[in-house]
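Hey L., structure's done. Input below.
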Amino acid sequence: MAYCRKCGALLKEDDVFCFLCGQLIDRHANTEAFAVAETGKETVVSEQARPQMSKEESIALAEKLRDEYSAIERLQREINDNQTALKKPVVLSGRRYSMFRFFWPFFILAYLALNVVYIIGIIISAGNDDLDGFLASFFIAIAVAVGILIFGGIHASRKRDRLNEQLGEEEYMIRKRQRDLETHTSESMRKLTIKKKGVSEYQNLVPSRFRTKYYMERVLILIRTDRAADFYEAIGLLE
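Output:
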């Protein structure tokens, strides 16, 4: 395992230049200089193996890690929130309106109209003592009642269809939001995996408990105020 003598980045076996700082790789020097010590489950770079870093290089590294750890923390919070939301059951009412719900008032209206028209016809016919008038009044009352029922049926049917369509759209949007949340969560998990893989090469430089935005900001403060000469010294001061 070899590291860049200038910035400490983990190198691949066939690297000629450091991908991070562009330093020419001396394979023999890098292999010997960066002997590592195993500490529990973590592998950390020993003091003798630390590469020389200027203040500017240390700040650049700390800023890079701060931004990366910040993105990881944000993605992790987002995933946790989404997974919590996905655990909640999706409630779909499944209810639908029936036509009778909107049609029954027209029954009452037709009945009242039937009686009113018929009574008026009887009163008019009785004054003239006209039998045909009685029959005419009866058929007119029936026609009015039937007309009200036909109008009521059309009105109730349209209202039922419109409201049921709205219910269907609401259920579709609920399902769509659920699918979108699942897709977004999967995408966030993919991004998180990439981000973690991107900073894994620095795990020998930063102990696991310090791999956060908060601690990298503290490292930057230590370096910028000259309380630490470089990145490694700042990490040591966090201990």
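Residues 131-199 form the longest helix (69 residues). The first strand starts at residue 2 and ends at 3.

-- N.
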